[in-house]
Amino acid sequence: MTLGILYHMPFWQAADGSLWESEGSFARYVDSLAPYFDQIVLSVPVFDRPQSSGSRLRAANVTLAPLPYFPGPRQFYPMLPRLYSRLTAWAERCDVIHFRVPTPAAIFAFRAAAAKRKPVFLLVVGDYEALLPHLPYRGLKKTAFRAYVAFEEWALRHMTSRALTFTNGAALRRKYEHDGTRVIETKTTTLSRDDIGTRADVTAAGRIRALTVSRIDPRKGLRTLPGAVAQLAADGIDLSLDIVGPTIGLIGDNERDAIRREADARGVGDRVQLVGPVPLDRLMGMYRDYDFFVLPTQPGEGIPRVLLEAMANGLPIVTTDVSGIASLIADGDNGLLIAGGSSGSIAVAIGRLVRDGELRRHVIQGGYATARKHTLEQQAADMMQVVERELHLSLPVQQPDPVGGRA
After folding, report:
1. Helices (H), 248-375
2. 96/363 Cα distance (integer angstroms)
C-alpha cells in the first residue's frame, strides 16, 4: 500500500540518492509512518541544489514527487496552474493520502484526491487565524495576509468536515470539531524512545545557560527575552541565553535585528546570542548543554514540538499558556506556565526554578514522564490504528524499529 504525504517542508536528494530535510522534524515524522506502508511518496518542494546541512530521512521506502521550491504562499500561487497536473498525478499514484496542514497546496490536492476517490486523513498543526493579532503587517500587506488566512480557514473547514482529522493539541481539536465532525487529538513529537535522558538536575549556580528553540518571527514573542535576561541579572542570577532557529523571510530578519537591538539597549548584548538554524539531528545533542528552556510563544500553533524535546533532555521549561500548550504542560508538574510572555513574568518563573531545587527536580522528572508518553513510535501506532479502523484499510504493518530507525 502506498501512502502519499503532502506538506511544504523542503527536501533535497543527495548524490547518493539519500533524502534530506533542512530542519528535521518532518523527516522524523515521515520515518515514524514508514513501517506501516509499502511505500511513501512525498509531495514536497525540493531545493534546486543540496543544502549545506540538514537531517537525513532514514526510511528506505520513501520517494519524492517533487514540487518546485517555494518559501511561502506568495511564491506558490503563481505556480499553481502548472502544479495542479503534478498534484493530480501524485494523487493517482497513492492508495491513501495524508495532508499535514495548513499548507498552500493542500486544498487543491484534496480536490484531486476526492476526484480520484482516494481516502484521506489530515493532521492540523497550526492556526494562522490566531496569528493575525500578533503580526506587524500594515496596509496592503496586512490586507493580503488577511485574505490568505480567510482562504486557508475556509479550506481547512472544508477538508476537516470531509476527512478523518487529527489535531496537534486540544485547542485545535476544539476549533475544528464543528457540525458533528469527529476530530482526534494527538501531540506532534520528534522523540524516539532512545532520545530521553536521565539527568536528575541542572546547574543552578554560577553562569546558567538557557535555551530557546524557535523560528525567528514576531508571533514567537522572542523580543521579550533580552528584558528577562536583564532583570535576572539585576536580581543576581547570572544567566546567558542562546536562541536557536531560522529567520522566516524579511519579517524574520527584521525581528532578529530587533532582538539584537533590544539586547544591546538592555545591556545584555553579550548574554543573548542568536545562533541561527541547527538541524534537528545535531540539535537533539545540544539540548543537554543547557540548564533551562524558555519559549514565550504567542497564539497560532498547536503544541510546539520543542517543548517535548526539552523535556526529554532534562530541561525545566518556562512557556506561555496559549493555544494547546496547557494540554501538554501542567503548571508546576512538568513545566511552568506564564500568562502573556512578558519579560517580567519570564524572569520571575526562571528565578523561581533557579532558587527552588525541589520544584526544579520535580519538573524535570515530570518532563521525562511526559516525554515517554509521547514518542514517535507511540504517536504513529495510535494514529495508524485509527486510520486503519476509520478508513477501512488493511495496512501492511511492520514492527517499528525499537529506536525509531535512526542512528
Report:
1. 249-265, 280-286, 305-312, 343-355, 357-373
2. 41
d(CA 176, CA 160): 7
157 and 215 share one domain: no
Which residues, including other chains, have CB under 8 Å from residue 321's CB and lie 6 or more apart?
Answer: 329, 331, 337, 338, 339
The answer to whether the pTM exceeds 0.90 is: no
Q: How far, in Å, CA of 189 to CA of 42, rounded?
A: 19
Q: Which residue segment(s) compose the domain that 9 sits in? A: 2-192+375-390
- Tell me how far apart the alpha carbons of residues 228 and 108 are, in angstroms, rounded to a whole number: 44
Q: What are phi and psi of 330, to 5 degrees?
A: -100, 115
- pLDDT tens-digit series, residues 121-149: 999 998 888 877 777 778 888 898 899 99
Residue pair 311/295 in contact by the 8 Å Cβ criterion: no
Query: Looking at the 3D structure of the chain, how many domains does it have?
Result: 2
Mean local confidence (pLDDT), 170-180: 85
| Residue 168 sits in the same domain as residue 249 | no
Same domain, 343 and 232: yes
Q: In a 3-state reduction of DSSP, which class is residue 364? A: helix
